[in-house]
Amino acid sequence: MTNNKKSKSKKEDVIVEQCEDVIVKAKQNFYYVCKGKTITSKKGLILSGQHVTEHDLQGGKDSLDALLHKGCVELR
Predict the structure, then answer these.
(1) How far is it, in rounded angstroms, from Cα 13 to Cα 53?
(2) What mean pLDDT is predicted for residues 53-63?
(3) In sequence order, what are the beta bridge partners of 75?
(4) Where does residue 58 rank: exposed (0-12), middle (13-18), buried (19+ CB within 10 A)?
(5) At residue 5, does pLDDT exceed 50?
(6) Contact 50, 39 (CB under 8 A)
(7) What residue ranges do the domains of the chain occupy?
């Protein structure tokens, strides 16, 4: 009986480790337009508080980084 408990414990540990990996991958920073700002994108205007991705902007990741540096978008 002791062996069964240990093996169950090991299985649970493995499951917990797998879940932690998934949680870490799910935690990503998202870019949002800052309060009082509006960004012109390929799909139109993106207003303050709305989510913006590199795919929305003509320059891609470089444009998004430039907007972050200027204070037009923020990471949350």
Answers:
(1) 36
(2) 93
(3) 31
(4) exposed
(5) no
(6) no
(7) 31-75
Is the pLDDT at 68 greater than 80? The verdict is yes
Q: Which residues of 4-13 are buried (b: 16+ CB within 10 A; e: fewer)?
A: eeeeeeeeee
The average pLDDT across 40-53 equals 94
pLDDT cut 70: percent of the chain above it: 63
Name the nearest CA neighbour of 31 among 2, 3, 70, 72: 72
